[in-house]
Every structure is written in C-alpha cells, then in structure tokens.
C-alpha cells in the first residue's frame, strides 16, 4: 500500500513557479495545472469517465457486496473467531474502496463551474474548499488504513487455519472470541500511527489568481520535502513491503504447509 503516490495522470507540476501558500511564511516551488487541458478531447472524456463514473460505480458495487457480507456474517454469528476475522477483512476492504469515491479529489480535478478550468483545484470559496481538503485527506487516511489492514487480516486467517490443522486438540483453547477480537484490533492499531503520520504531510494550498479569484488544492507540503529521503524510504521499504510482499509471502507459505499437512493426513 503506497501512502504517498497519488494518481498523477491529471496533473502537471512545473518546477520553477513559486507560489504563496495559506501559510505566509512558507513557499512551494510548484503550481498544479491540469494535464488534460492540453490533451485531446477524447483523452479528457475517457479520463473523466473513468475518474467520475467507472471507479465510483465499481466501488459502490463492491461496497454494497461488502454490506451483504456483513449481514451474512451477522446472521452466522459474530462470536465465531473466523467470522470476526472475516468481518475485519470486509470492513478494511470497504475502507480502501472509499478512495475510489473520494469526492473531494474528483472535484479538485473535474469540479464543475470552474472559472479557470486550466487549474486543477477547488474554486468554491475558502470555507467549502477547506472542507473538501479535510474530507479528501480524511479519505486518504481511511483508505490507506483499509488498504494496509486488507492485506494483513489474511495472515490472521491463515494463522487460524494452521492452528486448526496442526493443533486440533488445543484449537478451541487458543483461538477464542477474545483472542480473535484482540488480533483484529491489533491489525488495525499497528497501522494507525503510520497512516496518521503520513496524512500530516498533506497541506491545504489557497492560491490567488486572476481578478482577485482564488483556487485551492491539496498536495504534499514542506514537511515532506524537507525530509523527503526519509519519507520515501519508509514509504517504499516499510509500507509497501510490509503491506504487500510480506503478507503475501506469509499466506503463501502458510497455505503450502496446510496443504501438505492435509495431503499426508488424508493418505494415512
């Protein structure tokens, strides 16, 4: 799960422009322009359909399916350890899907009634713009947390199955409702500090433009650029590794051991 890289297909960052931010003492060496403003009409239309319609529609379908899964798990019994893990997985998946329905980000790139359509940003007034900034970063936090947990919960499910296969006699003593709840809580808790830390790197920019108009947008702030090597190192070699390759490797090895154990047990 990448907590820094966002979809940059609709933005271009000129390196030499200097603009004032909402904080008077700070300056940033870039302004955000819309790349589609120099692209063809067909490219713009295709990108708009994907961003504004296709991705949110698929996310709504997935979110609805997850709500159905929650109801099925509720009727099956939420005191079962396996159902607790599945519920945690469904909730995490729903959180990650919010990123495809991030209305603040969609409005930043495709918002209607923009006075200056060449600029990617919000042009609805300071109060509304700041609300969109808060909601956008909030969805980044929820989506980032959900994405990290989404790959970690299968590790817990694999561990539960391994205990059931290799220690069937003591399984019910080890895997209880209490231990399942604690494990699911830890799956979320260990990622919260990291996700919140990265969320503080985003800043609200309100930029003066022509005729006393303003436009606003969210982007990585000076806190990130001052410590860029450190944050990039953590992002690429901590988050992306421990939220992708490590869980996949653990689940793969665990499933292999389970398969071998079941195979030889059935042959006896």
UniProtKB/TrEMBL annotation:
GO cellular component: plasma membrane
Membrane topology: Multi-pass membrane protein
Claim: Amino-acid biosynthesis is one of the keywords in the record: no
Signal peptide annotation: none
Keyword match Amino-acid biosynthesis: no
Domain G-protein coupled receptors family 1 profile span(s) in chain numbering: 65-268
Classification via InterPro entries: GPCR_Rhodpsn_7TM
Subcellular location: Cell membrane
Main localization of the protein described in the UniProt heading: membrane
One example GO MF annotation: G protein-coupled receptor activity
Spans through the membrane: 130-159, 180-205, 237-264
Keyword tags: Cell membrane, G-protein coupled receptor, Glycoprotein, Membrane, Receptor, Transducer, Transmembrane, Transmembrane helix
Protein name (Swiss-Prot/TrEMBL): G-protein coupled receptor
């Amino acid at each position: 799960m990448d907590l820094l890289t966002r979809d940059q297909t609709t933005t271009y960052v000129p390196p030499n422009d200097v603009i004032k931010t909402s904080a008077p003492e700070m300056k940033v060496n870039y302004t955000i322009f819309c790349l589609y403003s120099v692209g063809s009409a067909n490219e713009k239309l295709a990108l708009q359909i994907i961003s504004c319609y296709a991705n949110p529609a698929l996310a709504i379908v997935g979110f609805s399916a997850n709500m159905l899964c929650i109801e099925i798990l509720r009727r099956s019994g939420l005191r079962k350890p396996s159902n607790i893990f599945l519920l945690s997985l469904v909730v995490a998946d729903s959180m990650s899907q919010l990123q495809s329905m991030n209305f603040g980000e969609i409005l930043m790139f495709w918002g209607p009634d923009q006075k200056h359509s060449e600029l990617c940003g919000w042009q609805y007034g300071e109060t509304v713009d700041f609300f969109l900034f808060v909601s956008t970063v909030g969805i980044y936090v929820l989506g980032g947390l959900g994405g990290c947990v989404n790959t970690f919960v299968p590790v817990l499910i694999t561990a539960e199955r391994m205990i059931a296969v290799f220690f069937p006699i003591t399984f019910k003593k080890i895997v209880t409702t209490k231990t399942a709840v604690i494990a699911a809580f830890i799956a979320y808790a260990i990622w919260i500090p990291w996700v919140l830390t990265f969320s503080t790197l985003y800043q609200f920019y309100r930029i003066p433009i022509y005729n006393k108009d303003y436009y606003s947008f969210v982007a990585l702030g000076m806190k990130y650029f001052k410590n860029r090597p450190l944050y990039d190192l953590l992002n690429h070699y901590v988050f992306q590794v421990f939220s992708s390759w490590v869980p996949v490797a653990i689940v793969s090895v665990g499933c292999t051991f389970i398969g071998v154990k079941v195979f030889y047990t059935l042959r006896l």
